[in-house]
Amino acid sequence: MDLPVIILHDFAKISEEDKKIMIDDVFSSRKKHLLRDPNAYTSNNSVESDQTGLFDVLYKKFMRKSENIFGKLNLASNNSDQCWAFCTNNEYWSFNPHIHNCTINSVYYLNVPKYNGYDCGPIMFSDNPESGKWEFYQPKNDDLIIFPGDLHHDPNFVPTKEWRVSINMEIRCRNDIKWSEYK
Q1: SS3 162
Q2: Which residues, including other chains, have CB under 8 Å from residue 169's CB and lie 6 or more apart?
Q3: What percent of the chain has pLDDT over 90?
Q4: Where residue 42 falls among pLDDT bands split at 50, 70, 90?
Q5: How far is CA 114 from CA 32, 106, 121, 140, 163, in A?
Q6: pLDDT tens for each residue of 91-141
Q7: DSSP three-state, residue 90
Q8: What is the distance between the alpha carbons of residues 111 and 55, in angstroms, rounded to a whole number?
Q9: Is residue 171 pLDDT above 90, yes or no?
């Protein structure tokens, strides 16, 4: 990949039992969002339930890994350890290239469904979406992808009823991060 994207395989090594609890927490949070606003687009919502504390553990591990990669991070006062779940399947999806208002962005893949025996639902990245040039990566369960918050990205369509569940985590810093060496 020619873009500043860091891909870490087998990041959290979450057991199948804990994975099921985390997915339950994601959908419990999704239901709470729907109760507050039945017309809301509910593919993306904050994780409000954390029965096991594993979302907190996941964020802290992401923070430690980011400091291992980039050095000491000078966190901004508005940094948050809030995790956001993005859930899509063949009924809930829309093309939505976007960026984040953060220094370091990440996507952790809690559940990547299979289609015809293969992982499905790649994510695409572009530093210039108007050019039409996008780079694709097909994530696997337990992958963490780290990239600049201002890098355009979009998860692609998942052709199954099974949910792709990814967790977004962000770090806001006062200091600059040198991304050029990660292309």
Answers
A1: coil
A2: 58, 59, 62, 81, 83, 84, 105, 106, 108
A3: 69
A4: low
A5: 28, 22, 9, 10, 10
A6: 887 767 889 999 999 999 999 999 999 999 999 999 998 898 999 999 999
A7: coil
A8: 14
A9: yes
Cα–Cα nearest to 106, from 133, 75, 81: 81
Inter-residue contact 110 to 19 (CB < 8 Å): yes
Give the closest residue to 165 by CA, choosing from 101, 108, 95, 115.
Answer: 108
The tokens describing 117, both together, are 């025996």
Domains of the chain: 6-182 (2.60.120.620)
**d(Cα 21, Cα 143) in Å, to the nearest integer?**
18
How far apart, in whole angstroms, are the C-alpha atoms of residue 164 and residue 90?
Answer: 10
Average pLDDT of the residues in 81-98: 86
